[in-house]
Amino acid sequence: MGRYTYPASFTILSFLDLFDTLLYCRLMSVLVQFSEQFLAEGPGVYAEDLDTGLSVMNSYRKLCADFEERRADLAAAEKLFDLPISVCTF
Predict the structure, then answer these.
(1) Cβ contacts of residue 42 below 8 Å, gap of 6+?
(2) Does pTM top 0.70 for this prediction?
(3) pLDDT digits over 47-61, tens only?
(4) Sign of CA dihedral 64, 84, 81, 16
């Protein structure tokens, strides 16, 4: 796959930086919302009713698997566009 040359007036890196920042802000917003919901409604809330806690834990496993799938998709997109792979540590 060949490299394209862009006119000097078209700043692809600025666009990619903006896109990366917007994506990071959106991801952080979703993760903050998820963590707040997990603390308020997650399996730990049902300490007295373990069966309900177990069923809630299974639904949160699915949500975590969805986050992992999105992370893998983003890593594949970064690799496709020859961008450095982002490491998300919190």
Answers:
(1) 56, 57, 60
(2) no
(3) 889 999 999 999 999
(4) positive
